[in-house]
């Protein structure tokens, strides 16, 4: 070790730590960056935070473990992720390692009450009863053509969009409340899955909770969808048996809402993108970055055919986790191929058809290919899907630049 590095004292920024199996999850004070590191790395970080020089920390580590740590690489990673101030920065007063809030802190009482075991049991019981009703009478599941509105189509499309928004909001609130119950701050955001815009809950801070609490926060959304679907099945079953006499439009909207919920549950099964099921699988196998490691593995395989391409060293990934990554790589490739096929064979042709309708309406051809109201909804849908495609293309371009 060079003399100037041995004498260097490092400004460690406040961070929080939480043991997770054989590793330790550390988070910065803003909880915007999370790393899974070894307990030995935390030991080094704690020594630096206590004011010891790099040389002193290395000496203590060698005396305890019988080997010299690779501090250079560790400091590079910690500085890049914002746990250590840049070398050129002035030394500042810092909190000791682990300060800035204890991991596993309890959330507010209202959140813990909603995410409690009795509520979970009640939801699962409702889902079980609803499933039994559907098995006894499959006709309770509405057919796909309930989404084809032959009467007042504009009003029904608007109502359907409102139901979709409400269903999505309930799904994301379930994530949010369960994460808050575990003491993890979170917020609602807008993201994308490939070229599809989605609402999502930023629950990054849940990394500081236990694995059980992480799984609960992940699966809360699908459970909310299942519970809502169960309530709608109860409503439709009661209407079918004459226990309720809802107006026809209310009955139709209940069927539409149930079908939307079932389609959202189907979407969760597409875990070749970052759906809730993807995160549940990654958490179950304790994979820190399943998607990123899988994409790196595929790039490494591609580099065998094109040696000029850069590769990523994955030797530090545990053997068990590498097996999961190889299995998930098959799902990733097959799922992406099917998704791209649907993009070029279904989505883009449909978008092109609607673009022709808009163009014909603007030209005044055929007496106006669509009414003003219908045209408004078409343009709105085209704008959403177009924004998703643009963001997806930008993401691909950025990923390509980062790879280079």
Question: What does it look like?
Answer:
The chain is mainly alpha-helical. β2 and β3 (34-37) form a beta hairpin. It contains 13 helices and 5 strands. α7 crosses α9 (248-268), α8 runs antiparallel to α9 and α11 (290-305) crosses α12. The protein has 3 domains: 3-80; 109-284, no CATH class; 321-403. The relative contact order is 0.08. A 3-stranded antiparallel beta sheet has the order 1-2-3. Strands 4-5 form a two-stranded antiparallel sheet.
What features would you highlight for this structure?
404 residues, mainly alpha, 3 domains, three-stranded antiparallel beta sheet, two-stranded antiparallel sheet, globular
Helices, by number, come to 13
Low-confidence stretches: 88-104
Overall average pLDDT:
80
Widest sheet: strand ordering? 1-2-3
The helix/strand series, from N terminus to C terminus, equals HEEEHHHHHHEEHHHHHH
Rg from C-alpha positions? Answer: 26 Å
| Relative strand content | 5-15%
Taking the alpha carbons of the first and last residues, their distance comes to: 31 Å
Which oligomeric state applies? single chain
Give the proportion of residues in helices.
55-70%
Number of β-strand runs: 5
Write the layout of secondary structure elements.
Layout: H1 3-6, E1 15-20, E2 23-28, E3 34-37, H2 39-49, H3 54-65, H4 71-80, H5 109-114, H6 117-136, H7 153-181, E4 187-193, E5 196-202, H8 211-240, H9 248-268, H10 276-284, H11 290-305, H12 319-363, H13 372-403
Antiparallel strand pairs: 1-2, 2-3, 4-5
Helix pairs in contact: 2-3, 6-8, 7-8, 7-9, 8-9, 8-10, 11-12, 12-13
